[in-house]
Amino acid sequence: MNIKLTLLTASCALALAACGGNDTPPRDRDTAATPPPVAGDTAPDSAMGAGNTPPAATTPPAQPAGSTGTAGNTGTDTAAPAAGASGNKPAAVVNDCSTTIEGNDAMQFDVGSITVPASCSDFTINLHHSGQLPVAAMGHNVVITRAADMQAVASAGLSAGADDNYVDPDDERVIAHTDLVGGGETTSVTFAASGIQGNGPYKFFCSFPGHSALMRGTIQVQ
Ligand code: ZN
Prior knowledge:
22% of the residues lie in helices and 19% in strands.
């Protein structure tokens, strides 16, 4: 009885709503009949991943690979590790237990991997946003987790929201992370290299909504 009644009420309400919209025809029917398109706000990950095709082959900044006469050149250019879905981006240039990587307005990091020298106890990642878009539209950060934790950490970050840099502050799976930065800004994080040893593989990625599909790479101690 009660259920029937509520259903009845509901359908009545629906009918009323439907009728209410129609029984006051404005002079111009056409404008009333074409509602503005509603932007679907669901599933930023797949939507952005599919819709955004960044320009192919952005030439990286001129960085002579190993030609600057560094002492310990281990000749990595011949034995390039198989890059997975992240494409064939170069490895980060590491100096004095730190590296600087870039994120741009096309939702891309400029490197596909970071190798932390085994001699480093701490390691610093500087993140420079080389684009111009504001942080709310194209924010970038660097989050480091085990590869197996990446998706879950990204989801938890999504729930945490922009105020927490899209990183859940209580998420113990997060090994290290930077703040979010917008165009022209730089941030950095220093973490213990021991955090990415022994239980890998490990990934770095941007946890801004939808970005981890493209902005990700591998990080390891070697
Ligand atoms: Zn990003």
